[in-house]
Design brief:
The structure holds two protein chains of two kinds. By secondary structure, chain A is α+β, with helices and mostly antiparallel strands. Chain A contains seven helices and four strands, in the order ααααβααβββα. Chain A has helices at 2-10, 19-30, 35-45, 49-58, 78-82, 85-95, 139-163; strands at 70-75, 110-115, 127-129, 132-134. The radius of gyration of chain A is 18 Å and the shape is globular. Chain A starts with a helix and ends with a helix. Chain B is built from 26 helices and 19 strands. By secondary structure, chain B is an alpha/beta fold. In chain B, a hairpin with a 3-residue loop joins β3 and β4 (97-99). In chain B, the strands form six sheets. A five-stranded mixed beta sheet of chain B has the order 12-11-15-13-14. Chain B has a four-stranded mixed beta sheet with strand order 2-1-3-4, with helices on one face. A four-stranded parallel beta sheet of chain B has the order 9-8-7-10, sandwiched between helices. Classes of the chains: A alpha+beta, B alpha/beta.
């Protein structure tokens, strides 16, 4: 972890203005910001850990908790909202048995969040799973997509297990 | 490396005639809408089918060929062509034919037709009332009243190939600017009366003038690409579809104010825009449009990209500057305005993407030409993202001053079948909801302001009778409350209070005095907040209170949601005649509210029901009825 952090730091100027790009690369790498990395980043950029923590908790893109392998971002922009993004979001939460504000499924496969607007309003309601955009969704369509992702994942696990 | 304006002009000419040498250009739209409907596979198939027929030519080949006519066609992946509803779109030039809803299996027939100079009628857009096919893009009602300035190249070039930009006069606005005196350049933008397209409509030249007048060792140009308004995707389309126009606008601004460095701040949710801009910056450096002594002049300029990290408030200029500096994106009081003291305390011009995309075109064609479009006080055009319950959704660009009615009914083709127009939400969370009675209001900065809305960034969401306006107000308030940076007490605490009141109204627990309380809170937040986010935060609530007062009353007094949207006010019933007693609903119900015996009609306990709608989703016999 330290090695990755240092590798990322080496690519940037050692100045406070590098903080956000460094955190973005860490987030891309680990899918969250491990606490121990934040202190390393603070020292390297010459700012206090409190400032780093402040920035890390200010921006929605950063997460201090590990996220699932597939991050489902349900668009809740105006167009999606009026065309049924809330029922879609609730249906996903029900399917993944997410309760009491939990966002990541018990098996660590999926994280569900809402996002202000993905800019694909014409296809409302829209969701993005990792980098792939899905349009004109219904709870039923989402179920099929999640089924497939689960199957794919199981298949991959099987292959990996057999290989080892 | 292009070393002079003359060389650039010659190259533009050469590229344009070289591209014209192809029998046809097949432009497959790869905008966000079409991409999500599978345009990539269509593009691959076009290439494949052209290859099969030995008719595939590339831009490189055409350039070598020097413009002499050939029988092959070239295919390009373009940015957004606008009519997203009908995607994937394929445009054939120079014939000007637009094909809609093209699937990969349609491609062989389409390619044959293109090569034979024929038209595939079934893939054309058909006017819904008359069924008439529109072979020419210009005949389609969606495009008829549009005027493309900022989107001039969107959908007409390959955004990843700088040569296709140069072929359409790209960077010639810069060349013209560099030949001008800086004062004359600012005067030209002032004469065009270009106003900021990002929201407020502040005169662009005023920002430039202030920054130009400052004595400083460093000055900066920032392009604000942090398009965060829900329901808006115009800037995204420009950054993805015509990235060089943004760079060219920044270069001209840089020259005008004496800056050497620029930043483009792009929203985190737009990975493709980041990629395209990155490529555009690299190419521009390679071709000599960025770097030292641009086009043989003494002007030097370079651009870096900054990815946003997911904070709506960073669309506010001082918050955006704080974010580039590596801090939490929190606004600070103005003055000093960024044009006097911005990034790292230096004079900084911040312009929005669309504003910058207009700049090169104004330079190329002159301020007088620009002022002929639009209205006297708001010249030019405005792009809008048309979405919601309208028949034709998409990206549109219209002259300022066109009425909402012309956009919704003329371009948008009216409501989706069976729906009635209730409101048009314009300008996102800073804007307002205008009722059907105000459809004849001209869309320009000042008219909208006086109606309690604003152009904002240009999101235009059409709402039908199935939309609950109180719920819409709650939705925007929730958004704003979540995005408030927390600096100003009125915005931080006031929006939370407004949200709580709206939530209880949508739950049927509102009180009549809540309406006055909302108005009072709204006024206080407007006065007590530092930045535009807070100042405009109450707009959606205040405008719905003004135009849709009766809906609030229905929720509060009658405990009824006329649109049937507010879940807490809904009632779910099983229609015994339709229920087969299959028990699917009972199994799906998370609250255990549904009971009965298999084979006989089930019933829902209103006390236990949490109104999630899981039963409706799972019923195969449409036996569950929802009442408002």
């Amino acid at each position: 972890m330290l090695e990755v952090t240092n590798r990322i730091l080496a690519r940037h100027k050692k100045a406070p203005s590098s903080l956000i790009p460094v955190l973005q690369e860490l987030q891309d790498e680990f899918r969250y910001l491990p606490k121990e990395c934040l202190t390393t980043v603070a020292h390297a950029l010459g700012i206090s850990p409190a400032t780093v923590y402040g920035v890390a908790t200010f921006y929605a893109q950063f997460s201090l908790e590990p996220k699932g392998k597939y991050v489902i971002r349900v668009c809740d922009g105006t167009a999606c909202h009026v065309r049924g993004s809330s029922p879609l979001y609730q249906a996903i939460c029900r399917r993944l048995q997410l309760e009491n504000g939990r966002a990541t499924s018990a098996n660590g496969l999926f994280t569900v969040e809402t996002v202000a607007c993905l800019g694909a309003c014409v296809l409302a309601p829209v969701a993005m799973i990792n980098d792939q955009v899905y349009g004109q969704l219904t709870p039923e369509a989402m179920n099929i997509i999640l089924d497939e992702l689960e199957k794919e994942d199981e298949a991959r696990d099987r292959i990996c297990n057999t290989a080892s | 490396m292009i070393a002079s304006a003359t060389q650039l002009a010659e190259l533009g000419q050469r590229y344009s005639s070289a591209l014209a040498g192809a029998a046809a250009q097949i432009l497959v739209c790869a905008g966000p809408g079409c991409a999500a409907s599978g345009s990539r596979r269509v593009f691959e198939r076009v290439k494949e089918e052209l290859h099969k027929r030995g008719s595939h030519v590339t831009v490189d080949y055409l350039l070598e060929n020097g413009g002499s006519p050939c029988t092959g066609a070239v295919t390009l992946e373009s940015g957004c062509q606008g009519f997203c509803q009908q995607g994937p779109l394929v445009r054939v030039e120079p014939a000007g034919v637009l094909y809609t809803k093209v699937r990969p299996e349609d491609v062989p027939e389409l390619v044959d037709a293109v090569l034979e100079g024929a038209v595939v009628e079934r893939l054309l857009y058909h006017e819904p009332e008359t069924g008439r096919a529109c072979p020419q893009e210009a005949e389609i009602p969606f495009y008829r009243t549009q005027v493309r300035i900022a989107l001039e190249n969107c959908g007409a070039i390959d955004p990843e190939d700088i040569r296709t930009y140069i072929a359409r006069g790209g960077y010639q606005g810069l060349a013209k600017a560099l030949a001008m005196d800086r004062t004359a350049l600012v005067a030209e933008i002032k004469a065009a009366h270009l106003r900021g397209r990002g929201g407020g409509g502040f005169p662009t030249a005023a920002k430039w003038e202030t920054a130009a007048a400052q004595e400083a060792d460093e000055k900066y140009i920032i392009c604000n690409g942090d398009e965060g308004d829900p329901g808006a995707f115009m800037d995204r389309s420009i950054m993805e579809g015509d990235p060089h126009s943004v760079l060219e606008g920044m270069l001209i601004a840089g020259y005008a104010v004496g800056a050497k460095e620029g930043y483009i701040y792009v929203r985190a949710e737009y990975p493709l825009a980041v990629k395209r801009l990155q490529k555009a910056v690299c190419d521009a450096r390679e071709w000599g449009f960025l770097g030292q002594n641009i086009l043989g002049s003494s002007f030097s300029f370079d651009i870096s990209l900054k990815r946003g990290a997911g904070a709506f408030v960073c669309g506010e200029e001082t918050a955006l500057i704080a974010s580039i500096e590596g801090q939490r994106g929190m606004p600070r009081p103005k003055p000093p305005f960024p044009a006097a003291a911005g990034l790292w305390g230096k004079p900084t011009v911040i312009n929005n993407v669309e504003t910058l995309a207009n700049v090169p075109r104004i330079l190329r064609r002159g301020a007088d030409w620009f002022r002929k479009v639009g209205t006297e006080k708001s010249p030019g055009t405005k792009t809008f993202a048309l979405a919601g319950d309208v028949a034709n959704t998409g990206l549109v660009e219209v002259p300022m001053g066109l009425t909402l009615r012309e956009i919704v009914y003329g371009i948008g083709g009216g409501l989706r079948s069976g729906s009635v127009l209730k409101a048009v939400q314009i300008g996102g969370p800073s804007g307002g909801c205008l009722p059907a009675e105000l459809l004849d209001i001209p869309l320009d900065f000042d008219s909208l302001q006086s109606a309690g809305a604003m152009v904002g960034s240009g999101g235009l969401v059409v709402m039908s009778e199935k939309t609950c306006m109180v719920e819409v107000a709650r939705f925007f308030m929730q958004f704003i409350q979540h995005e408030s940076c927390g600096k100003c007490t009125f915005c931080r605490e006031g929006t939370l209070q407004m949200l709580e009141i709206l939530e209880r109204i949508t739950r049927g627990e509102g009180r009549l005095e809540d309406i006055d309380l909302l108005k009072e809170l709204g006024q206080a937040i407007k006065q007590g907040s530092l930045c535009g986010l807070g100042k405009s935060a109450p707009n959606p609530v205040l405008s719905t209170l003004e135009y849709f007062h009766s809906e609030y009353v229905a929720h509060i007094v009658d405990k009824r949601c006329p649109a049937g949207v507010c879940t807490a006010l809904r009632r779910y019933h099983i229609v015994p005649e339709r229920c087969r007693g299959c028990s699917r609903c009972a199994k799906a119900c998370p609250a255990g509210a549904i009971s009965g015996t298999v084979g006989k009609p089930y019933t829902i306990s209103q006390e236990k029901c949490v109104r999630c709608g899981a039963c409706v989703e799972n019923c195969k016999f449409q036996a569950i009825e929802v009442t408002a």
